[in-house]
Amino acid sequence: MAFKSKKKLRVLAILDQDLIPPKNIEELPEKERKQYENEYDVISTLEKLGHEIRIVGVAKDVRVIRAAMEEFKPDVAFNMIVEMHGYSMFEPHLVSYLELLQLPYTGCNPRGLMLAHDKALTKEVLSYHRIPVPEFAVFRRGRRIRRPRRLNFPLLVKSLIEEGSVGISKASIVHDDDALAQRVEFVHRKVRSHAIAEQYIEGREIYVAMTGNQRLAVYTPWELRVENWPEGEPVIATSKIKWDRAYQEKIGLSTTAAELTPEIGKQLDHVSRRIYRILNLSGYARLDFRLTPQNILYLLEANPNPDISLGEDFAEAAEHSGVSYEKLLQKIVNLGIAYRPIF
User: Fold this and answer.
1) What pLDDT digit, counting tens, does each position of 80-139 carry?
2) Is 334 in a helix, a strand, or coil?
C-alpha cells in the first residue's frame, strides 16, 4: 500500500521562476528534463501524499511569497530556492524573510546556510572543534595571488561559495604556482566569486545524507566510484561528472552504498552528527567526506538543502535505510513545521 500523509496540508512550493516544471516532464529531452527533476519530483510526490500545493515562482521580488501566503494561508513552505540574483550566498536572506513572515519552511535555517555556504568559514569552525578538514587558503578577487608556505601541492581550486561543482574540472587540480594563479584567475573571471585552494586529499569519496533538527537521522553512507579512470589521476567530482550522463557512462560512474568496517561506520556516524550540530544545520543536509587509506575522515563540504530528486544519492541513501521517497518528503515537511528559529 502506498504511503499517505495522515493530515492534508496546504504547502506553498517556493521555486525559482525559471524552474517551475511542466505538468509532465517525461516527454522532455533528457537534458531539459534533468533541469526540472528536483522540483517536479517533490511537487508531484507531495500531491500524491494528498497535500494541497500552491506554486510560487520567485525571480527578483520576494514580495510574491507574501502575497501567495496571504491568499493561500499555507501550513508550511517547501523551499526549493538555492540562490537569488545568481548568487548562492543570498539563499540565507530568503530564508530569513520566511522567518520574518513567521511562515514555517522546509530545509536549513539562515545561520546554518551562512556557515555552510562559505567553505572557508566552514573549515575554520570545524578546525576549532578538531574535526579534520583540508588545509586551505582563500584568494579574493582583485588581490594578489600568493600561496602561503604551509599550503603544499597538489591543490584543488574552486569557488569559495558556489555549489554543484560549478567551475570544477580536471584543471582544478594544480601542481605549481603558475597553474594555481591561472586557475584562481579562472574562478574569479568565470564563476565571479572568490576562490579557495585546498589540499587535495587522496582517498574514497563518501557522502552522508542526514535529516533532523534536534534529533538526527543518519542514512546509509554513499560512495562515488569510477571504473574507467586513468591510473594515478586524481578523482574529483567535476561538473562534468555530476551533470553529463554520457560522460558518466563513459567513465563507469556509480554511486552505491559504501562498504565500511563497523569501526569506520561508527566513527562516520558520530562525526557527521557533530558536524551537523556544530554548523547549526537543520531540516536536511549532505556531508561530503574523503576517507584516506589511513582511515582518516576529512570533511570536504557541508551541503544543506541538497538535491532530493527521486533516484538521486540523497533519496537512494534514505531508501537503503528503509525510508521511502514518500516518507522522506513527509519527514522533511514535518521537520519544517516543527522547527523554531534560533534567537
Assistant:
1) 999 887 777 789 999 999 999 999 999 999 999 999 999 999 999 999 999 999 999 999
2) helix
What pLDDT, on a 0 to 100 scale, did the predictor assign at position 161?
Answer: 85
How many structural domains compose the chain?
Answer: 3
For 198-248, give the DSSP string.
EEPPPSEEEEEEEEESSSEEE---EEEEESS--TTPPP---HHHHH-HHHH
In a domain, 142, yes or no: yes
CATH number at residue 323: 3.30.470.20
Coil vs helix vs strand at 91: helix
Residues 207 and 194 reside in one and the same domain: no
Does some domain include residue 333? Answer: yes
> 290 has which bridge partners?
205, 298
Rounded Cα–Cα distance for residues 158 and 165 (Å): 8
- Residue 78: pLDDT above 90? yes
Query: What are the residues whose beta carbons fall under 8 Å from the beta carbon of 239, sequence distance 6 or more?
Result: 164, 165, 166, 167, 168, 169
